[in-house]
Amino acid sequence: MAGKGLHSYTVQEAQNATMGQAGSVFLDTDGKVFTPTSGVVVAITMIQESDFDTLTPETGTKCIEVGGTGYESGGDELGNTDLFPSGMTIYGRWTSVSLNTNGACICYIG
After folding, report:
1. Which terminus of the chain is more exposed, N or C, with fewer CB under 10 A?
2. Backbone angles phi, psi at 9, to 5 degrees
3. Does residue 94 form part of some domain?
């Protein structure tokens, strides 16, 4: 899939890309902001217990975000000290991600 233009993917390749097969990034530095140059972060797997300084959703209130409540304000507000356990994977569509003070994670691009 690497090196192909946006419109030259097969249907199967396009579906795979939306599931995180367009790349990944390892984060373990507090405060380092990761912003994909193409696509968005579609899944985040915690390698260590992690909290986030930034989870910026692609579209308004559709995904959890630090300081936000998630899907159409249907949940509790996520704080930057809320911890996600090691081994957990969260799914959404984020334009930027950064760890707060704890953890390590892999961000999958789609």
Report:
1. N
2. -80, 145
3. yes
Q: Total structural domains in the chain?
A: 1
The SS3 assignment for 51 reads coil
- Whole-angstrom Cα distance, residue 41 to residue 89? 12
Distance CA 41, CA 35 (A): 8
Threshold 0.85, pTM exceeds: no
Residue 51 in any domain: the answer is: yes
Between CA 30 and CA 28 the distance in angstroms is 7
**25 is a domain residue:** no
pLDDT digits (tens, 9 = 90+) for 37-53: 988 999 999 999 999 99
Cα dihedral 47, 49, 54, 60, rounded to 10, equals: 90
Q: Which residues contact 35 (CB under 8 A, 6 or more apart)?
A: 95, 96
CA 65 to chain centroid, in Å, comes to 10
